[in-house]
């Protein structure tokens, strides 16, 4: 939802410092494909990259939506790493460039506790205040902008000059996860939900919101159905269709995961038996502990151990 340029522009206009937002030509905001987040962190960080002219020069706006139950003490460092990756890609595409476009960093935070980690890179450096003052301008500087949704109450969110899809997205990020009373809480936002439906491509955006609600919320289905039925036939139809599709997709995923797990287990068993036979032929009968390790190993471990059989002088060298 936030990746749509019109939606993103309204969010940026609302949260960036006014003097900076006024210099950005958000009418020419464009989404850039790709993610710069470390693979192991993608379960908790979602990132979006945009370009827009800034006072006549090219600029990037990098938005990271942070999904986790605690604040990240090293977020300023991670943002610096992601920004360097953006510049690396920029230079790879323009090897003759002599200057770098600015990257404006924004973190959107949502959970039940306010952000309490540093937003300034210098604050995560392990220095006492006197030494930090002595180092002065030689320390790296980066301060990301923070949109802490935990500190935005409903009145402030209603007053924020953003598009209806963005307002509802921010609200759901703020209140939906694990909320058994979500249907009741959304009653006060019926007009905004209808406003999403009335927009061009409104049904698609509405389905996106419904999908998020059904995946992270814990409100009873009957209550949600009653809520959306009260919004009109289009909302009720979207809700029922989304629920049916998610249910069917879940069943299909479950079957696929079961088949994949079965195939993987079968392959692992076959490789383990073959490796055990090779080891027995070279080193003699295997002790029970070694057999247990072989049969408990992953396919990657089995491949590594099998490649060592021919050159190893003893069993320990293979299974190290």
Structural commentary:
With 320 residues, this protein is α/β, with parallel strands linked by helices. The protein folds into three domains: 1-151, no CATH class; 153-231, no CATH class; 264-318. It has helices at 5-15, 18-21, 75-93, 129-135, 154-159, 164-175, 182-186, 190-198, 202-216, 221-229, 233-283, 288-296, 299-308, 315-318; strands at 30-32, 45-54, 57-67, 102-110, 145-148. Strands 1-2-3-4-5 form a five-stranded mixed beta sheet, covered by helices on one side. Helix 8 crosses helix 9 and helix 9 packs across helix 11. Mean pLDDT is 87; it is low at 252-261.
Going across the major beta sheet, what is the strand order?
Answer: 1-2-3-4-5
Total count of strands: 5
Radius of gyration: 26 Å
- Sketch the major β-sheet: 5 strands, mixed
Structural class: alpha/beta
User: What is the mean predicted local confidence, pLDDT?
Assistant: 87
The coarse silhouette is extended
How much of the sequence lies in strands comes to: 5-15%
- Helix content bin: 40-55%
Instruction: Summarize the helix and strand pattern as letters.
Output: HHEEEHEHEHHHHHHHHHH
| Low-pLDDT segments, ≥5 res | 252-261
Distance between the termini: 49 Å
Q: Give the number of domains.
A: 3
- Our count of helices gives 14
InterPro entries: Rpn/YhgA-like_nuclease, Transposase_31
GO molecular function: double-stranded DNA endonuclease activity
Protein name: Rpn family recombination-promoting nuclease/putative transposase
